[in-house]
Write a structure and sequence with these properties.
Length: 268
């Protein structure tokens, strides 16, 4: 059942990483005014004497802050959301905190649990590039199917690769139409691999983006409905391509379709 209006309970606690610490938001079930009691010294744990069925013994566990700081929520008055900015919070420092609260300016008996949080290293941005030729740990290039007889589009997409190129400075993404209606000569598929082994095991990846420099785009206005799709690729080797890599691509879209293509434009 819902506790009496004079009492409050924590429903959720949320965090946002800031430049020097955290923004902490506490959600309660009833409007109240909270204070955060926090310390960077681990609370003492001890037991107190309790009488149970005539047996007097050390039973009840208690936690005591040896020293603490008190911070009031940012919002005025009684609220359901309670915001605390904990800045600065040094990297690699552990803090313990709990909450006390008022309802209509009167202290309540309600109390939250003791939370423990360690501030780890802040997020960092890493840039990865495919190795240029000669490759050492990763590869970029293109594999393609080319046949002058021409194939219908579904056939060309499903056909085996006939050649590849992983040595040039640029990657060509194109298709050729034939003189026969609805038939095409070739499709190029580009593969981009990145050596991300420096990311430590267990790391959390918050965001990832692929940035492509479009050096030249031609014929785009003739086919306004055409788009480039970003999908997984799985070449047989991490450091070189082969013709069969033309079919070693997935179908799961990793981003929105790239269109329209604009010269000298980066897609983030």
């Amino acid at each position: 059942p819902e506790p009496p209006i004079r009492n409050w309970a924590i429903l959720d606690i949320q965090q946002t990483i800031t430049a020097t610490g955290y923004k902490i938001a506490v959600i309660t079930n009833v409007p109240c005014h909270l204070y955060m009691m926090w310390t960077n010294k681990e609370p003492n744990k001890h037991k107190i004497v309790g009488l149970r069925r005539g047996d007097l013994a050390l039973r009840e566990t208690r936690y005591c802050f040896t020293s603490w700081n008190k911070n009031e929520q940012e919002e005025a008055g009684d609220t359901l959301t309670h915001t605390f900015y904990k800045e600065p919070w040094p990297v690699c420092e552990t803090r313990w905190f709990t909450f006390k609260g008022e309802v209509d300016t009167l202290w309540t008996a309600s109390a939250g649990p003791i939370f423990k949080k360690h501030r780890g290293e802040p997020p960092t941005t890493k840039y990865f590039y495919s190795d240029k030729d000669p490759e050492e740990t990763s590869v970029d290039g293109r594999a393609f199917h080319h046949i002058w007889e021409g194939l219908f589009w579904p056939e060309l997409r499903a056909a085996p690769g006939t050649s590849f190129d992983d040595t040039t400075d640029t990657m060509l993404l194109y298709h050729y139409g034939s003189s026969t209606r609805d038939k095409f000569y070739t499709i190029n598929r580009a593969a981009l691999l990145f050596d991300t082994s420096i990311i430590p095991e267990g790391a959390t990846i918050l965001d990832a983006k692929l940035r492509i420099y479009i050096g030249s785009a031609s014929g785009w206005n003739d086919y306004p409905d055409y788009k480039l799709a970003l999908v997984p690729s799985n070449p047989a080797s991490n450091t070189q391509l082969e013709a069969a890599d033309y079919q070693r691509v997935g179908s799961t879209l990793l981003s929105n379709d790239l269109a329209p293509l604009i010269e000298e434009y980066y897609y983030g």
